[in-house]
Amino acid sequence: MFTREDNERLCRVGPGTPMGEAFRRFWIPFLLPEELSADGAPVRVRLLGENLIAFRDTEGKLGLLDRYCPHRRVDLFFGRNEQCGLRCPYHGWKFDTDGKIVEMPAEPENSQMLQDTRIKHYPIIEWGGVIWAYMGDPAHKPAQPPLMEWATVPSTHRYITKRLQRTNYAQGVEGGIDSSHVGILHSLLDPDKKDLPFRQKQVSPLSAVPYLAMDTAPKFFVRPTRHGMTIGARRNASESEYYWRITQFLLPFYTMIAPSRNDGTVMGHSWTPIDDHNCWVFTMTWNGERPLSADELDYGAVHSDTKDDGSYEPLVGAAADYGLDRDVQRLRSMTGIEGIGMQDTAVQESMGPIVNRSLENLGSGDAAIVRFRRLLLGISDELETTGDVAVAKQAELYKVRSAGVVLPHGVDFQEGSAPYTEVK
Description:
The chain is built from ten helices and 20 strands. It has helices at about 5-10, 20-25, 115, 150, 170-175, 180-185, 325-330, 340-350, 365-385, 415-420; strands at about 25-30, 45, 50-55, 60-65, 80, 85, 95, 100-105, 125, 130-135, 160-165, 220-225, 230-235, 240-250, 255, 265-275, 280-285, 305, 315, 405-410.
């Protein structure tokens, strides 16, 4: 059983918490490049429970500072982004992207305060179509973010969106690695079958492989890897073959779901923790060999409202019951909610911002969920024991893909799927 104490350790990500300190040893994606323009408006940031402000200066350099001026604690969101610095509007203190105070117009020119006072700041970089922050001990800063394939392909080969989800990061990750729900939550319905509403011969919503029968109880095989774990969900495909839905979990909070076809186009997510109760969901769709076509740009992502306020709220959310249509639910689909991504969001947010995992009753289909929780608690233990999180500095380990493949009986799923899951 997952105890309340374990759940607290897993979900709390603020400064000084075991998981929060472990996450601070990784480069973390948190903004899209278009959110910051040179000398443009600063952007409020909440990340790992800290209130910060981000800006791009006149020369294009990126800064991430404490949201509040160290003088009288004015919110720097109201600051003026000018001439390579962010100026507090109250008394004119001006900060560069490295957190150095370069001007104090209300103080004498020779004031020692100018030399002695600093504002908290974190290094940030733009790379791979997103902006990343490092919030940990500078002595342990990894040389680069993880080399996931989506971040290394040309910009024409990837498409990245962002939205807010009102849950702890862990609920999102657990949804992303849970293959047993696919044939149920995302299923179409057969109104002629009252006892078992799932179609008995249909195409999986995430695979072009028709099952002999809709196999709603796949067998799970979870393999530990240096990047996290590889999950094989096995279903019947024919009398002599299995359909394997292979999902990747990459530490600390990345998932890759099985693609609809093995043509090189893959989709993954980053469940970036805003605080204990909210996360940013980045959806990355990419192809390692070619530019994406127009119909591949969405690939099931939940659309968000990208107003100037930077909220990135889903266009349809909890206030509208995620667009639930009871007639559609009765006649056509399990949920009555349009879109795989919105269906996932609805069930994950329905649990509340932090689900009480001590009340769960897990089954055999939850093997990956159990392993995920152990892995996350493990990196927090590693940091406390050794003072480091080794995987955070091993960017090369992240060069993997997810896949959906049909393999003959007796073929190991990791070996048989290697041509599709290994990135050269």
